[in-house]
Amino acid sequence: GAARGVAVCGLAMLLGACSPTIRVDLLPGPEPLEPVVVLEKDARSSQRVAMIELRGLLVDSVRPTLLGGGENPVDRFIAQLNLAEEDPRVKAVIVRVSSPGGTVTSSHILYTELSAFRERSGKPVVVSIGEVAASGGYYVALGADEIVAEPTSITGSIGVIVPTVNVSKGLGMIGITSRSVVSGPNKDMANPLEPMQERHFEVLQELVDGSYARFRGLVVARRPALKEADVGLATDGRIFSGERAHELGLVDSLGGVREAHARAKALAGVERAQLVRYVTAGELARTPYAAGPAAAGAQQGEREFNLVQLNVPGGAVGGLGNPMETGGIYYLWMP
């Protein structure tokens, strides 16, 4: 028996040494991005306008995929801005936004990076609003030189939300109680397992008011066509069609990607320029409207939020993923 065991082990080692190694990478890193021409492919010029897509929930975290990997949408956006800045053939950038918003901080990071890109590179930026650029999606759009919206787009929702859920009363009815041991009266703020205290709402309201003041001030500063008499209406949290947003001065003109491309060329002072998108090897980009893996991951993030992340600062009700990873204060439209 012992001799047979040694022989079997020796045979296994021999076969292992001789056989090829097969490596399956279930958590791949980000793939290199390459430019692909998607419009004006026969343009008689090497000059380019780069189109960068910003789609889905805006969160500074990796959105999971089926195999557990994924990309951070903030990281991908900034990486594409860097490519556009470093390429001397790129004369302008279009940011195609289809997003209901996201966390306050992620929205602000994206806005800041877009503004810094414009200042450093001197390359004009045009935002093209697709299906929706609401709340944080619109916040990012304010970093552009011009905003072009489809007349049927949804935009606006200028405001802040901290969604909370409290299940303490329901749990108490079935004999379940909770008691947190805390260092201070506000440490368990918005704990869904214990009754919400009014003083907790007052603290949260102060936080919301500060973020809203920043958003509102940015709208006033960046949208000079918005009349003072319309500021209250435009920033009370309601949504608008692209057409109504244009009437109010929240966007500069109406149109789609082609119109945004024309405006980008005009601002850059070039007559012809190919429109390119940055894609990885596995992405299809036949037209400007193709949605890549990052977009799909962002949409998955939206579903996660809708199903689970009725998020409260102290926790969440549900069981998909990690609902704590995004915090609890949002520039987000929640239809």
Describe the structure.
The structure is a single chain. With 335 residues, this protein is of the alpha/beta class. It is 37% helix and 17% strand. It has ten helices and eleven strands. The chain has helices spanning 2-18, 73-86, 104-121, 136-141, 168-173, 198-222, 231-234, 242-248, 257-268, 293-307; strands at 34-39, 48-55, 90-99, 101-103, 125-134, 146-149, 154-156, 239-241, 253-254, 274-279, 330-332. Strands 1, 2, 3, 5, 6, 7, 8, 9 and 10 form a nine-stranded mixed sheet that branches. Strands 4-11 form a two-stranded antiparallel ribbon. Helix 2 (73-86) runs parallel beside helix 3. The longest helix has 25 residues, at 198-222. It is elongated and about 75 Å long. The model is unreliable at 11-27 and 294-326 (pLDDT under 50).
In short:
With 335 residues, the protein is α/β, with parallel strands linked by helices. The protein has helices spanning 2-18, 73-86, 104-121, 136-141, 168-173, 198-222, 231-234, 242-248, 257-268, 293-307; strands at residues 34-39, 48-55, 90-99, 101-103, 125-134, 146-149, 154-156, 239-241, 253-254, 274-279, 330-332. The model is unreliable at 11-27 and 294-326 (pLDDT under 50).
Protein topology:
Layout lengths: L1 H17 L15 E6 L8 E8 L17 H14 L3 E10 L1 E3 H18 L3 E10 L1 H6 L4 E4 L4 E3 L11 H6 L24 H25 L8 H4 L4 E3 H7 L4 E2 L2 H12 L5 E6 L13 H15 L22 E3 L3
Parallel strand pairs: 2-3, 2-10, 3-5, 5-6, 5-7, 6-9
Antiparallel strand pairs: 1-10, 4-11, 7-8
Helix pairs in contact: 2-3
Q: Which descriptors apply to this entry?
A:
nine-stranded mixed sheet; alpha/beta; single chain; 10 helices; 11 strands; 335 residues
